[in-house]
Specification:
alpha+beta, 7-stranded mixed sheet
């Protein structure tokens, strides 16, 4: 048992390298290729940030030859502020952060503790992909498994042999208090291993995308669009018979202007750092589609889509949404916007 390639820089920071390959596939890379990716998980003294504290924050990131795991450990309440500063700084470079139940627990907890320490909230510059939500909403595992706890899903995917840790989150809390009382290095190793294995196993669990429709998932969760030093983070997509609309965050903050174009309408808000784009759609009978000729040469790649024909791109047929084509159209529109704003300046 232990953490391979372990380097303890001081009592509060652990830096380890593992030879695991970070998940990759054609669909995954379509959305996340070139993006800064991270997997994160926290350990706390309880369930509510009002009365409980963060004692350990971990983040896994891809790097050459494997993945890097960094862990920030607090010896007590007096070190939580330092932990929060270091941990949020480590996550700040990520465009996309993966978690397990992070939208409901980890993110609100971190932001709750930041607020209690009079600090700004985190996660505003990244897309959050909560794998618990992905499994719950986009797979049939709810009907196959007794529960959707991370370890249960890991076991179903055949990942049980990859985990050294055998304790639960509740055990980790008990061990933490015991460690504070005894300062036992062995107890500290158990706590760190539990968090480290959660990170490594969650990174391995990303392979579940092979069994799911990643395009439908990204339509629901959002995805980043990156070009040069600019990132546009799609937070919401809506497809109606008359328009495809999507909105999100734009970094760095864009200039304030509204553009009306034959192809689409764009609104940028400098103060909020947000964008809204609406692309007119045509609809006939049970089809919702766009005229590719009207979109211009920047959208020519869509002509090769299996949903394209006779110069049109079908976004919905009856009740079936062509999620990949919808997302690809949104991605190309944002790249068009980013490039033209750069040229304008």
């Amino acid at each position: 048992m232990g953490l391979p390639a372990l380097t303890v820089m001081d009592m509060h920071f652990v830096d380890a390298h593992f030879t695991d390959s970070f998940y990759s596939s054609d669909g995954f890379d379509f959305y996340f290729g070139g993006a800064g990716l991270g997997v994160f998980d926290i350990e706390t003294t309880g369930l509510g940030p009002e009365k409980s504290k963060i004692v350990l924050g971990g983040i896994l990131t891809p790097e050459a030859g494997g993945v890097r795991v960094r862990q920030f450990f607090s010896e007590g309440a007096h070190e939580e502020a330092e932990l929060l500063d270091l941990y949020t700084e480590a996550m700040a470079g990520a465009d996309v952060l993966f978690s397990y139940n992070g939208d409901r627990f980890d993110i609100p907890f971190v932001n709750g503790r930041l607020a209690a320490r009079h600090r700004q909230p985190a996660f505003s510059d990244c897309i959050s992909i909560d794998m618990y939500r992905v499994v719950r909403s986009f797979s049939d595992l709810r009907s196959r498994l007794p529960n959707l706890k991370q370890k249960t899903v890991e076991n179903y995917l055949g990942l049980w042999g990859s985990r050294e840790d055998t304790i639960s989150g509740a055990d980790s809390v008990s061990l933490y208090y015991e460690y504070i009382a005894t300062k036992s290095p062995k107890l500290l190793e158990f706590i760190l291993l539990h968090n480290c294995d959660d990170l490594l196993q969650l990174a391995r669990l990303l392979a579940i995308f092979d069994r799911l429709d990643i395009h439908e998932i990204m339509f629901s969760t959002g995805f980043p669009v990156l070009s040069g030093g600019t990132s546009a983070l799609v937070d919401a997509i809506r497809l109606d018979p008359g328009a495809l609309s999507f909105s999100g965050r734009y970094r760095p903050a864009p200039p304030d202007f509204i553009v009306f174009d034959e192809a689409f309408r764009l609104s940028l808000d400098n103060e909020a750092g947000t964008f809204d784009i609406s692309i007119p759609c045509l609809h006939e009978k049970d089809l919702v589609f766009v005229d590719l000729a009207a979109m211009g040469p920047g959208f020519s790649a869509l002509a090769d889509s299996p949903d394209a024909g006779s110069g049109f791109l079908v976004l919905r047929r009856g009740r079936t949404t062509n999620y990949r084509s919808v997302n690809h159209l949104a991605k190309l529109a944002l790249l068009y916007v980013i490039e033209h704003i750069a040229a304008f300046h």
